[in-house]
Model the fold of this input.
Amino acid sequence: MDRVKLYIQESYNELVNKVSWPTWQELQSSTIVVLIGTLIISIIVWLMDTAARYTIVELLYKKIFG
Done:
């Protein structure tokens, strides 16, 4: 039980005294960068999915019905 207590005390000490927490401004900037990156990647994946779907569907229809 002493090991658990020591672990909790050391973890708390590290979080309070050793961790460098971002400022509110830095946090907002990072969040905006992540949101923009996520949006760009989502659009790229959507475009690739749409292009693949229509290409595959057209090829199947041509082979089956054409």
